[in-house]
Amino acid sequence: MKNTKKYSSFSAAILLLVVLLACSTALTGLASAASAFSPQRFVEDARAQIGKTLFYDSSYTRIPYPGGDVPIVRGVCTDVVIRALRHQGIDLQRLVHEDMQKNFRLYPSASRWGLKKTDANIDHRRVPNLQRYFERQGYVVTDKTYLPGDIVTWNLHAQVTHIGIVSDRMALLGKRPLIIHNIGYGAREEDILYEFTITGHYRIAATKKHF
Asked: Which end of the chain is less congested by CB atoms within 10 angstroms, N or C?
């Protein structure tokens, strides 16, 4: 009888261990799935800003850190990207700031704007800084296939730069994807992909291992 109880207890312990390992594996899988970057959600979160961000306002503004933002009713082109990514836990304000603190000389802040140190209020809201960050993360796309959720940058004229997100919707005429952006009239979804000189094409990795 004693041996029977001993084996029964041992079997129960083994069963409990198996259950715990199964739960651990399941939770790890869920965590991995939760951390996966979704281009489709990126597009949808960018589109959700249409009708909310009504104005273009490039004035310097002090904002909290991390997770800081200007009022949703206004912003610049980069804010469309920044806001959409935050819905997936990707805070470009923090990420760019931390990378610039370690690698300031690799960013254009000194040569382009004459700055001598980082500024968490504005660094991530400047297109050239985002371009450098995306390059450093290995997000550059070298072909001309524009997929939903891709990020594109342009040179409008002189030193004026722009950034937008490739939509999952196409132009009525032609096979061009629309772009979700704010070029001066608030967040909109428009056929402007080839309207200006393209200077960058980026695609965030499927997982957020770099974040």
From this structure: N
Return the H-helix or E-strand segment holding 66.
Answer: none
CA distance 198 to 14: 61
pLDDT of residue 209: 56
What's the rounded Cα separation, in Å, for the pair 200 and 28? 35
Task: Tell me the backbone φ, ψ of residue 93, rounded to 5 degrees.
Answer: -60, -50
Region of 114 (left: φ > 0; alpha: ψ -120 to 50; beta: rest) is left
- Nearest Cα to Cα of residue 49 among 66, 67, 71, 68: 71
For residue 70, the one-letter residue type is: V
Residue among 190, 197, 184 at smallest CA distance from 57: 184
Low-confidence ranges of the chain (pLDDT < 70): 1-35, 208-211
